[in-house]
Amino acid sequence: MLATPYDEMHASDGGVREHYKTFASWLARTPSERVAHKRAEADTLFHRVGITFTVYGEDAGTERLIPFDIVPRIIPANEWKHLAAGLKQRVRALNAFTNDIYHSQEILKAGRIPAEQVLCNGQYRPEMQGIDVPGSIYAHIAGVDVVRAGEGEFYVLEDNLRVPSGVSYMLEDRRMMMRLFPELFALHSVAPVEHYPDLLLENLRSVAPSGVNDPTVVLLTPGAYNSAYFEHAFLAQQMGIELVEGQDLFVDDEFVYMRTTRGPQRVDVIYRRIDDDFLDPLVFRPDSMLGIPGLLAAYRAGRVTIANAIGTGVADDKSIYPYVPEMVRFYLGEEPLLSNVPTFVLRRKEDLAYTLAHLRELVVKEVHGAGGYGMLIGPAASKAELEAFRQRILRSPEKYIAQPTLTLSACPTFVDAGIAPRHIDLRPFVLSGREVTLVPGGLTRVALREGSLVVNSSQGGGTKDTWVLER
């Protein structure tokens, strides 16, 4: 039986928390018919804009509207200040770690992380060894998943450093709330997020190759059939840069060029939304039709910046996650401001034995898994599901980690039966360039099924606007 979740809006005595009181008062005096009408209006507008997410393997079709909930997740200023400081600290350490393992490997020599855990990792790219990247920055955009559990403490659940997605939904959720309920923003001092595309473009321009004063930035997409294509097109449009596919770019004399109607144009920074394996068919997968032949040679020569850098995935692999607090201590000489979730690494015999003995109590994840797939939530699993997963673990224990089942905090949410608590998480987006910055807030994802702890859009989750109060 899971513990009672921390309620974001209500204290344990049932009273409304201070930072929610203005919203609760507005909600109490607003006719339910108006709220229902606004919810329907939001659905119509999201359909019109085309804000969808591709759900693979479903008989009902692949394109799905991401459900949007109009009860915001509100974070008071003092909580955000602590959370933002912890996120910046964590991303600085992750960048230092990635730079280190592709250069002198000091943390491995010191024995703080087992070398085989890194060098034999499926996300480690030996082709990146010794390549200097601008500013020693690898994770220019990081989406760090944070949950609140227990008595309200924040925990980092995972670090997304490869091609983190979801920021377009953060921006559209805010736009939708301001359109539907402008009076709420007059009542609250909500920190803005609308400037994220400008901040992202400034960040990308700041890491251009040395000597480039007016860099050309492009966004590289796999194409319209990718699950996050809406976001790719949205961000390119918002930043005022070209949205390109691999066939639109080519390499000549170790420079990258974009094909245009006016002839070739040099490209200096590529914000890529394509996995490493597909970026350069001359180096990685030779069957890739998505990448640019010769891209790694141009990268190695320092003629183009790729964001996020090739090989960054090793730092967000779930088997590396348990060592992030040690990275903070090793590289920054500081104690971590944000806690990890206690994690069992199943390649270790003692962790494997404990996990198999307590499978019903734990969440088990594939180290390379994403989107809520390839995982077991022990308390919600049937006896048959537990046994089937046990056999999968025994066949390849190195592919899994396990964690206690956290009772994620809950936020009031509109569902068919009315307003009811539903579990949520938060993905703030941290940008690394000349400075480490982030907009106040992030993407709050909500598990719409009663009792569900899986918030991923691909698994039926929805989103909420995230309000960070300025005072």
TrEMBL record:
This is Circularly permuted ATP-grasp type 2 domain-containing protein. Transmembrane segments: none annotated. It comes from the Bacteria. Pfam families: CP_ATPgrasp_2 (PF14403). Residues 72-447 form the Circularly permuted ATP-grasp type domain. SUPFAM superfamilies: Glutathione synthetase ATP-binding domain-like.
